[in-house]
Amino acid sequence: MRRAPEPDTEPLWREAVGRGLRDLRRARGDRLADTAARAGMSPQYLSELERGRKDPSSEMLAAVAGALGVPVREVVRRAHADLALRAGSPSGPVMLAA
Amino acid sequence: MRRAPEPDTEPLWREAVGRGLRDLRRARGDRLADTAARAGMSPQYLSELERGRKDPSSEMLAAVAGALGVPVREVVRRAHADLALRAGSPSGPVMLAA
Fold first, then answer.
1. HTH cro/C1-type domain spans which residues (chains A, B) (predicted)?
2. Chain-chain contact of B57 with A61 (C-beta, under 8 angstroms)
3. Among A57, A79, A87, whose Cβ lies nearest the Cβ of B71?
4. What is the pLDDT averaged over residues A15-27?
5. Is the pLDDT confidence value at B18 over 50?
6. For residue A10, which residues of chain B lie inside 8 Å, CB to CB?
7. Does position B47 have pLDDT exceeding 70, yes or no?
8. Which of these CATH numbers, 3.40.50.300, 3.30.160.340, 1.10.260.40, 1.10.150.20, describes A13-86?
């Protein structure tokens, strides 16, 4: 069944949180394998989280945040900023420069 | 002042988001059954989300936000505010009045 069109094209939570996790990891200069090892997960799984392909459980989110040296609320703050930026205007998303 | 062990005391994402969803629903004067019906889920499942017992998928989160008349980013903003409030001070969480 086809869904009714959304009023805007807001990204999914997992996409916003994935971008936040990737940005935090890169800011540390970590490779996927570095952060994943500290978080106790595979680099493949962390990569899926960063690309917004998987919804992390709250425990996984806490593990990755811990591995990145930040509280969960910092990851949530970044995800919110990502969603707010992409919302752009009330009439829809803005195009972000690459 | 003694510094509390922060990582152990931060609430889980699903607990913070659950409180945000409950607050938004109550602010509308909705019963669980009202919001759940619009979101296409059972009142029991919505109740579990609100109590922080289940991690909502991104699709479920979008469905509940839509049923509450807000974008996902508003739910995320409230979850962040909840986590920041409970973090309270650099030395640990504050006790919230009931």
1. 21-75
2. no
3. A87
4. 98
5. yes
6. 62, 71-73
7. yes
8. 1.10.260.40
Going by C-alpha positions, the residue among B29, B25, B17 that lies closest to residue B66 is B25
Cβ proximity of A97 and A13 under 8 Å? no
**What pLDDT does residue B27 have?**
97
Q: Report DSSP state, residue B71.
A: -
Average pLDDT score over residue span B53-81: 98
Cβ contact (<8 Å) for B58 and A15?
Answer: yes
Q: Do B83 and A72 touch (CB under 8 A)?
A: yes
Of the pLDDT bands very low, low, confident and very high (cuts 50, 70, 90), residue B9 is: confident
Q: Read off the tokens for A27.
A: 């800011």
Q: What was the ipTM of the complex prediction?
A: 0.82
A23's tokens? 């940005």
Name the 3-class secondary structure at A89.
Answer: strand
Ordered by start, the domain boundaries in chain A are 13-86
Helix A13-28 and helix A58-68, axial crossing angle in degrees, nearest 10:
20
Mutate to test the interface with A, among B58, B70, B78 (most CBs of A within 10 A): B58
In this prediction, residues A79-84 reach a mean pLDDT of: 96
